[in-house]
Amino acid sequence: MRLLLLFLSFSCFFVLTEQLARFDGDRVFRIFPEETHDLRLLKELRELQFDFWTETIISTKPLDIRVPSALIPTFIATIKKFNVKFEVMIDNVQHLVEEQKKQHAPLNELPSLLDEAFYSSYHTYDEVVSWLQQLVAANPNLTELINVGKSYEGRIQWAVKVSTSQANKTALWFDGGLHAREWISTGAVIYMLGHIVSDHASDPDVQALLAEFDVYVMPVLNPDGYVYSWTSDRMWRKNRRINSGSKCVGVDLNRNWDYHWGDSTEASDLFPCSEAYRGPSAFSEIEVKNVANFLASIPHLEGYINFHSYSQLWMFPWSYTTTPAPDFNLFNEQGSQVAKSISQSYGTVYEWGQISTIIYIAYGSSCDWVYGTLNTTYSIGVELRDTGTYGFLLPPEQIVPSGVETLDGFLTYAKFIAENKKR
Asked: With CB atoms 3.0 to 4.6 Å apart as the test, which of 80, 151, 292, 297 could cross-link to 155 if both were Cys?
């Protein structure tokens, strides 16, 4: 009861205040569940709404949990009572938050928005939009800037189409920034888009990509949440919808897609204050609805990738069930090839597997909807760097390496699709 009351007082503070959230003394603990009672404890901690940085309640994989400084003694005592092993991954979250922003390079300090230096820093929503506009203006015969729709707060969800032909070819889509705090997903997507455009005439692999496919890219799917993660709360995950009847704000945009949306009975999916709140109905969130409508309008959409962080995982349907998808063997073969390509530049190791078995069961996910409703075979979810040393607070110096290796993986992914179309 004491733990519950302490947590509720902490969570209410961050629901009601609009001042800049700070994380002084907050720690990220890694917990190692081994037995059934450990999993019961973790379920109780989840229902108390601690900030789970990794989510895997169905296995005995380690879990990372951010604990507010005021709750650390009680949290440790509770964990020790259950004899659960743990270690501290991040000793002071606020220190890493400040390090990320300290290295932010404003646009007026760059020689050009299209300079390589742009990729070495995280950028605000407005900076990303300015970069997209300049990228398209500089490459009018190759790119098109597309207004996919407006967010809950009225910001535009911008996408770029990269194509070498007037005729519609088979299409691939990838996006980042669905979960606001996962900044590396936007950073890596920007790098990939920029180099697909800049290298289209010089890199044989990029040439092969664009000879076969039109490529659509959205760096910031959740603009309201992304802006809020810069201005108010670096750990913000959801969008910014006002939830009727609740003081808690936001919906998890990767639980709101209309595919097995209503199947879950987990408190975390149903509770508006949860980081995984699914929303009042399928497609209730305008950001999700906009992207779903646009994806459905793309002729011959053959591939879809939704980038997240963190854990270094290449994942495929299903997420709502542990039953293998009809294309499981195909997915597994592709995942093996992609993971090998990702590792070539820096030795970064990725695992691959079905979403529901490699991390957790999730209902209403984008990958399941694209695969199950649009019948787009190669529907993928990716967790980018790292494996917990920095978590969501990956240093800016890792943006370019992450972009390089992820682009390598994407080119292998596209090559696999092209080769399998011709079998």
From this structure: 151
pTM metric for this prediction: 0.93
Instruction: Provide the pLDDT for residue 18.
Output: 58
**Model pLDDT, residue 321:** 96
Measure Cα distances from 243 to 152, 272, 277, 300 in Å.
Answer: 12, 7, 10, 36
Helix (H) or strand (E) holding 88: strand 85-90
Distance, in Å, from the CA atom of 192 to the CA atom of 278, rounded to the nearest integer, reads 30
**Secondary structure of 182-242 as H, E, C letters:** CHHHHHHHHHHHHHHHHCCCCCHHHHHHHHHEEEEEECCCCHHHHHHHHHCCCCCCCCCCE
Between vectors from CA 55 to CA 193 and to CA 404, what angle results, nearest 5°?
A: 25
pLDDT, block means (10 residues), the chain with 423 residues: 43 52 97 75 73 74 92 88 92 96 81 87 96 97 98 98 92 98 98 98 97 98 98 98 97 98 83 94 98 97 98 97 97 98 98 94 97 98 98 98 98 97 68
Assess whether the previous peptide bond of 230 is cis (omega < 30° from 0).
no
Would you state the structure tokens that stand for residue 119, as one six-digit string? 């990729």
Task: List the catalytic residue out of 18, 383, 397, 405.
Answer: 383
Q: At residue 311, what is the residue type?
A: S
In 125-191, DSSP assigns E strands to 143-150, 156-162, 170-175
For residues 63 and 34, give the distance between their C-alpha atoms in angstroms, rounded to a whole number: 11
Length of the chain: 423
Query: CA geometry: angle at 60 spanning 66 and 278, to 5°?
Result: 55
The CA dihedral of 236, 318, 35, 53, to the nearest 10 degrees, is: -10
Q: Burial-class residue 313 by CB neighbours within 10 Å (0-12, 13-18, 19+).
A: buried
Largest CA distance in the chain: 65
In the three-class reduction of DSSP (H, G, I as helix; E, B as strand; rest coil), residue 317 is classed as coil
Residues 6+ away with beta carbon under 8 Å from 122:
100, 103, 104, 183, 186, 187, 396, 399
CB neighbour class for 165 (10 Å; exposed up to 12, middle 13-18, buried from 19): exposed
Q: Which residues is 129 bridged to in the sheet?
A: none
- The phi-psi region of residue 286 (left if phi > 0; otherwise alpha if psi is between -120 and 50; otherwise beta) is alpha
Q: What is the DSSP letter of 103?
A: T
User: Look-up: residue for tokens 């007026």?
Assistant: 108
Grouping H, G, I as helix, E, B as strand and the rest as coil, residue 160 is strand
Active site residue 44: no
